[in-house]
Every structure is written in structure tokens, then in C-alpha cells.
Amino acid sequence: MSTLLKARIADVFEEPGCDKNQGKSEKERKKGCTAQLAPGAAAGGCAFDGAKIALQPIADVAHLVHGPIACEGNSWDNRHSASSGPQIYRTGFTTDINELDVIYGGEKRLFKSIREILEKYDPPAVFVYQTCVTALIGDDIEAVCQRASEKFGKPIIPVNAPGFAGIKNLGNKLGAEALLDYVIGTVEPEFTTPYDINIIGEYNLVGELWQVKPLLDALGIRILCCMAGDGRYKEIASAHRAKVNMMVCSKSMINIATKMEKRWGIPYFEGSFYGIGDMSDSLRQIARLLVQQGAPDELLGRTERLIAVEEARAYQRIEQYKQRLSGKRVLLITGGVKSWSVVAALQEAGLEIVGTSVKKSTKEDKQKIKEIMGDDAHMIDNMTPREMYNMLRDARADIMLSGGRSQFVALKARMPWLDINQERYHPYAGYEGMVELVSQIDRALSNPVWQQVRMPAPWGDDGETLGAVATSAPQATDQQATRFLSEVAAHALGLVPEEVPA
Ligand code: SF4
């Protein structure tokens, strides 16, 4: 690992804005946040993947991956970050290095690729991502980017986060460091207002930022820049003139917030757009900090009035689902703030939360769960797929809300499931988002497919082996095909066919 990269990693491991980090001894802190993997557990994304996830939503720049083609294939466009304009960020650019490059070095190929992108697409900047192979053969992407910047007169930004540097979260932070080192503070905005804010760590998944922006617009608050959802290069370059930074729930890019506070005196707070109460708290915090930074006091009153109207409207719209959803039980397998922030809205719709996972939750998250649900009996520390399956099969929960990885457990148990993690297809932010979430739960629960899927298989009982099901699959009806898929999914999860209920 190069000395520069080592120094940068050591720098991000020292994080004054993270309580957990500050609670560790100096020795522990140097090891970073990587949890020891259990044998057989999935390792999750690499550092390169993390950097790409954090920066790819910048919509008007070209993201060039310097490495073998598989690295780009691994990370390309996997999170539905939406753009209101340019689409170049969704084009997969890679140097696609080969064996000869490994022997002779890939720097020339990288330089040529940058030139080709600039000639063909003319983006305002090119972000160049380092990967394992090109880092191991010693390609100096910083030097190539500097040379290309000078030659072509455009910002060429090196993102030095090769996969072997660590986990995805470290990659998020290394991506943020690239913005701090090469982008933020390099352009002055055309004008500024006392109501300018930056939103950090919001990726505009399925257009969630657009559920929040109208609320800020109504208060006259301007998003000077969003890092990185629906972001533009120039906006990020001029982000240092904002009055307040909001860090959205996760601590993935906290180093931007803490360093901007140190360099430009911009105060920040950590807030969330998930859940009705949290949306309101975030609006209050933004208004309070803006007033503290010089905006007129009347902003506080206007914010409270907007909150009152929006909360009443959201709860009124959720009310219509109460009759159908009342008494239905939800198993919530997510993490962080979502482990509690969506609970109030779900309870308002009459749903009962039978359990919420706290594997990725902080001490504060757990405290919140206790406050909302009365005790810690609902907290699930680490639920295995088999336990989830049993819970759904025994009808101790009517629906599971989780990420895509757990969907096959619900499918196997023939129970409804809703994706609420990063690959989701519906936006759940702000007041609008909570109404959407309740509406999607209602749709999932009322979907007639579950009735059909639960009917006994026409070819026999459930004791049949997968092989027998596979043999009948080519002539199968839709219903048989659905069952076949659930058997295959179960097989992939290692669940035995005898566990399938009649
Ligand atoms: S671990 Fe290395 S080789 Fe694999 S995707 Fe990440 S950067 Fe590419």
C-alpha cells in the first residue's frame, strides 16, 4: 500500500465526529471499524465499491474505473440514484486493463481513456477510481490525473480507494477525502443566501431527495449542494459557501462534515428524512442552525407552521389504511435509524412491530427503540435466515420489511416482503415517503399472489425433492413456476424441503 494511501486511511480512522470512534483507545482506533468476519459470512463491498457508491451519484461527471472490467461490473449503477438532468454518471467507463498492462503498467492506457472521454463526452470533470490490480502493479493515478488535468484543462479527480484497503464504509470515507482534497472549495458560487445548506450522505435513491426538496423550497431554503445524490460538479466545488451542513443518518461521509466545520466554520448536524417525527426534527434543526448563522428569526415560526400542516396531512392520509392494516404484524430487518424511525408511522397505521433488528444500530438507536416500544423485547440482535423463516412460517409476522438479501426467506415462507434498503424501488423519505411506505405495505399484504402461492402443489405434497420439482418445471403453470422458484431459493439458503408447510 502506498505511503500516501496509508496516511489517508490513518487520517479517516481518527474521526472526531463519531462517538464510537472517539470511545476507542488509540490502538483500537488504528485498526479501523472493520468487524472480524465469521467464516462463511459474506464480506460485503470492498473499499473501491464504497467510494464508487458514495461518488457515482454525481450526475454530470464521468466515473472512470481504472482496473479489470469486473470491478466496474461489480459496482455499476446498483443503487438507483436518480438524476434530474445529466445521465453520463450511469455510463460505465473502465480502462479494462489486460495481462499486458499488468506487465507494462496501465498508466498510458488510463491517460488515453481520460482523453477519449473528454473528447467524446466533454464532462465538467472525470473521477478516476483506483482498484486492487492497478494499485498492486504500482500505477500512480494521482500523477496521471495531475498530468491530464494540466494537459486538458479540466479537473481530473483521483479516487484512491483500492478494494484491498478495507471495507465499503472505509471506501465511502476515502471517496469523501477525494472531494475534500480536490473538489470542495475550488469554485465560488454565483451568489449566496442566508438560507444555503449542503446535504451530505444523501444519494437520492429512487428520487428520495425530491420528496424533501419541496419542503425546503417552501421555506425558502436552498440546497447549495447535495453530496452526492443528483449532484453536480460545480455545486460540490462551491459547497464551502453553505451556512449549514446536514449529514443524513449514516456516518458514511462524516469526515466531510467535520473537516468542513474545521476549514470553513460550517456547523453540521446529523438528521434523518425517514419517519414523520424525524423529518420534522431535521427541518427544525436546519432552521435553528440557519438562524444561528444569521438568517432572520422568522424562519423558526414558518418552519413550525409547515411542520404542523405536513404532519397533519401525512397522518390523515395514513389513516385511510388503518382499517385494512390494523393488527397486522411487521418484522423489520434493517439497521441504523430505520430500525426505529419508521416505527411511529407504522404504528399510526395500526401495524404491530413484532421485532426490529439492531445489528447495525448504535447505542442511541437502541435507546430510541426502547422509548418507542416500551422495552427491549422487540430488539433482534442477529437473526439468522432460518429464524426469520420460522417466524414467518409460524405466522408470528404477516410481512417482512428488509433488504434484498432476505427476500428469498420470505418467498420461501410464502409471506409478503417489502424492500426498504438501498435497492428499493419506491422512495420512502419525508412525509410523502412514509405515506408511500404504508401504501406499499398495504399492497404487498393484499396482493392475491400470496393466496395462490400458499395453495397445495398440484403435483403432490411438499415432501418432494427439488429434483422432482425441477423435472416438472418445464410444463408448469404460473403457480407451479412460483413454487419452483421458491424451492430453488430455499435450496440456495440451505433450508431443507421438509420445512415447507402444507
Ligand atoms: S476487491 Fe479489488 S478486484 Fe474486487 S471489486 Fe474491489 S477493487 Fe475490484
Automatic annotation (TrEMBL):
The keyword Secreted does not apply. Gene3D superfamilies: Nitrogenase MoFe cofactor biosynthesis protein NifE, C-terminal, Nitrogenase molybdenum iron protein domain. SUPFAM superfamilies: Helical backbone' metal receptor. GO terms for molecular function: nitrogenase activity. Residues 46-445 form the Nitrogenase/oxidoreductase component domain. Pfam families: Oxidored_nitro. The keyword Flavoprotein does not apply. InterPro entries: Nase/OxRdtase_comp1, Nase_comp1_CS, NifE, NifE-like. Belongs to the NifD/NifK/NifE/NifN family. PANTHER family: NITROGENASE IRON-MOLYBDENUM COFACTOR BIOSYNTHESIS PROTEIN NIFE. This is Nitrogenase iron-molybdenum cofactor biosynthesis protein NifE.
